Structures are given as C-alpha cells and as structure tokens.
Task: structure prediction
Amino acid sequence: MDHTKTKTGTGSKKNFFAKEMPLLLYGFGDVEWPLPETCETMESILIDFITDVSFRAHGVATRSGGRKVKIDDYKVVLGNDPKKLARVEELLYMHEDIRQAKMLFDQDEVMN
Result:
C-alpha cells in the first residue's frame, strides 16, 4: 500500500498542509493548538474538496474544446455557490492589486 495517498486515494501527500492547518483552524475559532487528529481530518476534507473542484474544472475545460484549465473554469464550477464564487472573485482582485503594487515598487527601485 502506498502510504503517500490520502484516504480517497488521490495520490496527495498526507500532511501537505501540516504547517498551515493549525493556523487556519485557530484563525477560524479553534483552540491555539488543535489536536493532530483534527488537523488530519480537516486536511483530508480540504484535499478532497480541492481535488473534486479541480476535476470538475478539468471537465469544464474538456467540454470547451480540450483546452487547459483556466480560472474561468473554476468560476463555472463554483457558480452554484455564491459565497465561494464571491471569495474567488475577491482573491483574484486582491492578487491583481498586489501584482500591480509590486510592479510599482519594482519601478521605484529601478529609478533610484
């Protein structure tokens, strides 16, 4: 048996989010140091969610002519969940905002 696979057999490594999971749980109201079992369970749920959404986005891309998966494919998959879709839009907006700020910062450094 391959011990790097999750319970779902997706091939993902166990403890992939080992450092982040306690911080995420604490940020969402759990105790400062959650039980390892809690972290493992939440990691398993997270990996299953990411895998499911990614496969579904791949399906959307495949039906659209077999092209590579794009951000819009993820938006289609999450379109039935307004909260998740709004969060994706917010993160994309913040990503672009940060990218532009970095470009301005880099230009300032070159000029000095």
Summary: Residues 53 and 59 are 10 Å apart (CA to CA). The helical segments are 20-27, 36-63, 71-77, 82-111. Residues 1-10 have pLDDT under 50 and may be disordered. The radius of gyration is 18 Å.
